[in-house]
Amino acid sequence: MKSITKQKSIEDIQEGLKGLDKIFVVGCGTCTTMTKTGGVEQVEEMKGHLQEMGKRVTGSTVIPTACDDMTEVAMKENEQFIRSADAILSMSCALGVHRMSLYLDKPVIPALDTLFIGVEETPGYFREACDQCGQCLLGQTAGICPITACHKGLVNGPCGGTNNGKCEVDKDKDCAWTLIYNRLKEQGRLDLMHQYQPPRNHHVILKPKSVKIT
């Protein structure tokens, strides 16, 4: 399984880091190294871009595989550098962003857009964690994808059917936007709940999907 990604524009990355001055950069030694979007060379290049923006880079690392248990190990190994950062800039796929957000109480901002990805949690059991839309919102939604975590795929807050934190479609399922709200509140970033997301542009990634790595 490989996650195919492309780097966001420098302007989009700068906008995602607005108000966040000290940055720790994380790459991935597997998929994004292969696609040349988040390996050692790309992480070093990104550090230069951040410095040009006036950001302070507190450190960086390339996790061997950012979407598995190596993420937690890497976060602990770099704890002192991460602690002094305002946010983590992730040069991994969306699943790597999701993983990092599980172990950190700081914003994890994606530097990449994930185009397509498959997740196998246990042998034979697959769970969708990313819609491969090419328009990643995880930086604004605290690492929780509303398109896949919400039954209705809502990108501008909960519907009127949420009840005590549960989804009206499946009462055993947590409301995605309740989870997003709670995590943003912990991060002190609830202002992002007021940020309007325009309708999805389905021309960003046309089917059949393909990428040529040069």
What does the secondary structure layout of this molecule look like, with pairings?
Elements: E1 4-7, H1 10-16, E2 22-28, H2 31-34, H3 40-52, E3 56-63, H4 70-77, H5 79-83, E4 87-91, H6 94-103, E5 108-110, E6 112-116, E7 120-122, E8 125-126, H7 146-149, H8 176-187
Parallel strand pairs: 2-3, 2-4, 4-5
Antiparallel strand pairs: 1-6, 7-8
Describe this structure as you would to a colleague.
The protein has two domains: 4-135, 3-Layer(aba) Sandwich (Rossmann fold); 140-195, no CATH class. 29% of the residues lie in helices and 17% in strands. It has eight helices and eight strands; from the N terminus they run E-H-E-H-H-E-H-H-E-H-E-E-E-E-H-H. The protein has a four-stranded parallel beta sheet, sandwiched between helices. Strands 1-6 form a two-stranded antiparallel sheet. The chain has a two-stranded antiparallel ribbon with strand order 7-8. The model has no long low-confidence stretch (mean pLDDT 91).
Oligomer: single chain
Outline: globular
Largest sheet: 4 strands, parallel
Label the CATH architecture of the largest domain: 3-Layer(aba) Sandwich
Helix content: 25-40%
CATH class of the largest domain: Alpha Beta
Cα end-to-end separation? 20 Å
Instruction: Give the number of domains.
Output: 2
- Give start-end ranges of low-pLDDT stretches: none
CATH T-level fold name of the largest domain: Rossmann fold
Order the strands across the largest sheet as they lie in space: 3-2-4-5
Which features would summarize this protein structure in a list?
globular; alpha/beta; 2 domains; two-stranded antiparallel ribbon; Rossmann fold; 8 helices; 214 residues; four-stranded parallel β-sheet
